[in-house]
Structure formats: C-alpha cells, structure tokens
Design goal:
142 residues, alpha+beta, 4-stranded mixed β-sheet, 3-stranded antiparallel β-sheet, globular
C-alpha cells in the first residue's frame, strides 16, 4: 500500500537538488523539552534557540532540527516551544510518559503532507517539502 509520504519519498529520491539544498540537520535526544517553570527542559529550549542563532550569525543555517524524547503532552502548545524562524511539527507520546518526536523546519519551507505515528511505545512523523523535493522523517524507538 502507498501513502502520501512514501510516494513523496520515491519522488524525492531522484532529486539531487534536494540533497545539495539541505545538507545539514541537527538531531538531538532532548530527554524533555517541558517548557513549564519547574521543568528542566525550559533551559534546553533556550539553549537550543541560542545555538541556532549563533550558527545563523556565522552563516550556518539548520533547515531542520529533529528532536527525540521531547516528553511533551498535547496540553503544551506549539507557541510554548517555538524557535523564531521555524515551524513546528510534533508527535507526542499519548499513552505513557516520555518519548515523543518533534521536527523544526525553516518557516520558508512549506509542508504539503504530514503523517505521524504513535503506538504507545514508538513515535514517528514525516513531512514532505515539495519545494525542496524532500521528505524528512523523525522516529523514536526506545
């Protein structure tokens, strides 16, 4: 069976422009991005945003920032974990604590398809970026 993400992946495989356009991705295992005042994760997000800005100032831009073990729940809004200049896509673990994945992508890269998966143990998401002929997936398997 075919899905929009798998169809887009087959299409993106043939595009060398996608590979040269987006040559770097930042991958982190956060072990909590909890933005609450008492959570240790609140400092991680501030540090991440500062790291991204420092790199931007020296000409290194991360088109994608993939994060595993976000430990977020649906009651945290995307606005609470926003990094300026990036769009947020996430899949929170719903049935128990921990887990979760998140993908920041440059706001200038429109997403046409997003699919997510959560079986209570593993989480994953994939985004299709048609203007870059690219599919990016983030998967967490404990």
């Amino acid at each position: 069976s075919s899905s929009p993400c798998s169809d887009a992946f087959r299409s993106a495989q043939t595009s060398s422009a996608a590979l040269s356009l987006h040559s770097s991705i930042l991958l982190l295992n956060a072990r909590s991005l909890n933005p609450s005042a008492n959570g240790a994760g609140r400092w991680k997000l501030t540090d991440l945003a500062a790291h991204v800005e420092e790199n931007r100032q020296i000409g290194k831009l991360f088109p994608f920032i993939a994060i595993t073990e976000t430990w977020l729940k649906s009651y945290y809004s995307d606005a609470q974990i926003q990094i300026p200049g990036y769009s947020v896509t996430r899949c929170d673990r719903s049935k128990r604590n921990g887990g979760g994945v998140l993908l920041y992508s440059l706001s200038s890269l429109p997403v046409s398809v997003t699919e997510s998966f959560d079986d209570g143990i593993c989480q994953g998401l994939c985004n299709v970026y048609p203007s870059a002929k690219l599919l990016v997936a983030v998967i967490y398997r404990p």
